[in-house]
Design brief:
Layout: E1 2-6, E2 19-24, E3 27-40, H1 54-60, E4 68-81, E5 105-107, H2 110-116, H3 122-128, H4 136-149, H5 155-173
């Protein structure tokens, strides 16, 4: 279960490995950014390198920036039903239904980060979908960096992360 979103500005996008939240049909979905791409907003055109800096292009040909778009893809790793409930119990599984078109996506709040990453069950979904994610190891490192940057990575959470990672790696190597 994956979802894709487009940024409003081509040069303002979430980081690889960021936890994002999107609420649709009273379900708050959580996804990790695993792919980001920028290109032409017109599928029949290709962005061309002009041998100029971005600053030079903005001065000489500012119109070309109106034809760029950035999209990013997320793997859905969990959701909360009825996000107004006081418990906000996260279910670490795919959404029961897809997000609606034009659903707004934002960075997860610090409270959501702490709540979501207090349990390592999200790793099971990442490993189960490793064939759809090109750089799983890099994604896991980016998640750890994001948690560290947001001061959410406790020793206990890191230990559970490593233990679960080790077990899942063993299971994959033995084809379970």
């Amino acid at each position: 279960n994956f979802w894709q979103a487009q940024t409003w500005q081509w040069d303002n996008f979430p980081k690889f490995g960021a936890l994002l939240a999107a609420t649709s049909n009273n379900i708050k979905s959580f996804g990790i950014v695993y792919n980001i791409s920028t290109g032409s907003s017109d599928n029949s055109r290709v962005a061309i390198a002009y041998k100029k800096t971005e600053w030079e292009l903005k001065i000489e040909q500012p119109q070309i920036f109106h034809f760029l778009k950035t999209t990013f893809s997320c793997i859905n790793l969990g959701f909360c039903e009825n996000n107004t409930s006081p418990t906000n119990k996260i279910l670490y599984q795919f959404n029961p239904e897809p997000l609606k078109i034009h659903t707004f996506v934002s960075y997860a709040s610090k409270e959501d980060l702490m709540n979501f990453f207090s349990n390592e069950q999200y790793l099971h979904l990442i490993f189960a979908n490793a064939n759809h994610i090109q750089f799983v190891d890099e994604l896991l490192l980016a998640i750890l960096k994001m948690l560290s940057d947001n001061q959410v990575l406790s020793y206990n959470n890191f230990t559970k992360f490593i233990d679960t990672f080790s077990i899942l790696t063993l299971l994959i190597s033995f084809n379970f």
